[in-house]
């Protein structure tokens, strides 16, 4: 299953990597890709959406499911 989350505040590739790493730390995430230009993060797997949003916010970004 694929989920897409809006992520605000990513301005470079390093920030994309930070978001991806935060998402990969969540159980049930098999892959995560962040796109700063689209302001999204796409996650493959079956994680809890609330957990995804919290992980992104804990990394310092604004996120909306």
What does this entry look like structurally?
This protein has 65 residues and is α+β, with helices and mostly antiparallel strands. The protein has a single domain, classed as Alpha-Beta Plaits, CATH 3.30.70. Helices cover 34% and strands 35% of the residues. The protein contains 2 helices and 4 strands. Strands 2-3-1-4 form a 4-stranded antiparallel β-sheet, covered by helices on one side. The protein starts with a strand and ends with a strand. The mean pLDDT is 96.
Helix-strand layout with pairing:
Blueprint: E1 2-8, H1 13-24, E2 29-35, E3 40-45, H2 49-58, E4 62-64
Antiparallel strand pairs: 1-3, 1-4, 2-3
Short account of what is shown:
The chain is of the alpha+beta class and 65 residues long. It contains two helices and four strands.
